[in-house]
Amino acid sequence: MAVKTEEKLLETNKLRASCLFEIQSCDNLKKLETLKSAILGKNGKITEVMKQLKTLEGDRKRLLGAEINSLKDIVTKKMNEKFSELEMKELDKRMRSEFIDISLPPRSENVGKIHPLTKVEEEVSNILSSYGFAFADGPDIESEYFNFTALNVPDHHPARAMHDTFYVHKLADENGRKLLRSHTSPVQIYAMRENTPPMRFFSVGRVYRSDYDATHTPMFSQIEGIMIDKNVGFSHLKWILTDFLRKFFEVKSLRLRFRPSFFPFTEPSAEVDINYEIRDGKIVFGVGNKWLEICGCGTIHPNVLKSGNIDSSKYHGIAFGFGLERLASLKYGIPDLRGYFEFDERWLNTFGFSHSAK
Ligand code: DAH
Fold it and tell me: Is the pLDDT of residue 307 over 80?
């Protein structure tokens, strides 16, 4: 029996040596997990030896029991140490592989540019808002009534033909044939009907005419403005347009010339020119005696006020209309109108604005 215990003790020593060797030479956490269950798990080597204790008795059992317990303690301790060591190693490896060198210069970002129309729309809106003009809107698909009749353009009036209107065939309702609005002036009628005077509104939007060359595109944009009050007249129009254009072109010396003209919706009507000169092949505003047409305007015709349900014996109004692309092209030197709608990135990179620009 004594021999048997000796043998067992010898076996325990061997087991300790082999376990410690295996733990020591293990080089990754996954392997260590497997090793742990192979040594200390339910069917692990040490557990197996402990099961054999049951077959012994008395002193032998105690002697061998103490030996196996110390073996288990040592192996468990070494195992835990190895776990910490490998965990540290793995963390270290991850930290090194995920290292970010914050001293490197950033990669250049491909940031989009702001379209000149967006930029100019914002500039125009800011100036008009500062006079107390609020934004008003109307539909792109209009009817003959709002696009023409309500604006004092009677049936068969030549002005209807002047606009080269796109009609939406087969579509009509009580307001006549449907069409793509040829100007933003119909917004005047909605603004008048939906509000009571005094009022100041402006609109910016797309309009459509069947025309295509370097200075005409089938779709372009207009700005419309109206102001209605008891004592409003041409002098207000002159002040507003002068101040507006000086601010927009950022030229204090800009001069305006009001030329008598005709629009069915205003009476009297005028076209406004601004002065300029060509210097070194470039257009310079506010100097010289050359004139460039910039907008149409007038005092609102009583028939138009009537269409807007406004009593023309009490109230008067002024109105004006600009082409947005024309404003943008003149201010920023953009040559061909067609570029605005071709969605060519090279065009936008040339004429667009970066986000940081004011
Ligand atoms: N609707 C005109 C056009 O498209 C522009 C215009 C002229 C608008 C005079 C107005 C105005 O409000 O008073 O040609």
Answer: yes
317 lines ligand 1 (CB under 6 A): no
Q: What local confidence, expressed as pLDDT, does residue 2 receive?
A: 55
* Cα–Cα distance for residue pair 270/268, rounded to 1 Å: 7
Query: Does residue 113 line the site of ligand 1, with CB under 6 A?
Result: no
Q: Report how far ligand 1's centroid is from the alpha carbon of 240 (Å).
A: 16
Query: Does ligand 1 lie within 6 Å of residue 263's CB atom?
Result: yes
Q: What pLDDT does residue 118 have?
A: 96
pLDDT one-digit tens code per residue, 31-66: 999 999 999 888 888 888 888 888 878 888 888 888
If we measure between CA atoms, which residue out of 153, 149, 179 comes closest to residue 165? 179
Q: CATH number of 116-357: 3.90.650.10, 3.40.50.1580, 2.30.30.60, 3.30.930.10?
A: 3.30.930.10
Burial degree of 301 (CB within 10 A; 0-12, 13-18, 19+): buried
pLDDT tens figures, 224-252: 999 999 999 999 999 999 999 999 999 99
Query: 270 CB less than 6 Å from ligand 1?
Result: no
Of the candidates 187, 177, 193, 184, the one whose C-alpha atom is nearest the C-alpha of residue 163 is 184
Q: Where are the domains of the chain?
A: 2-97, 116-357
What pLDDT digit, counting tens, does each position of 197-210 carry? 999 999 999 999 99
Q: How far is the CA of 202 from the centre of ligand 1 (A)?
A: 12
Cα(136)–Cα(315) distance, integer angstroms: 20
d(CA 331, CA 248): 8
Q: How far apart are the CA of 116 and the centre of ligand 1, in A?
A: 22
- Amino acid in position 215: T
Q: Is the pLDDT of residue 143 over 80?
A: yes
Is residue 299 lining ligand 1, measured as CB closer than 6 Å?
A: no
Which atom of ligand 1 is found nearest the CA of 298?
13
Contact (Cβ atoms closer than 8 angstroms) between residue 188 and residue 151: yes
Q: What DSSP letter does each residue of 98-146 carry, written as one string?
A: T---TTSPPPPP-PPPBPHHHHHHHHHHHHHHHTTPEE----SEEEHHH
For the entire predicted model, the pTM comes to 0.71
295 Cα: distance to centroid of ligand 1 (angstroms): 8
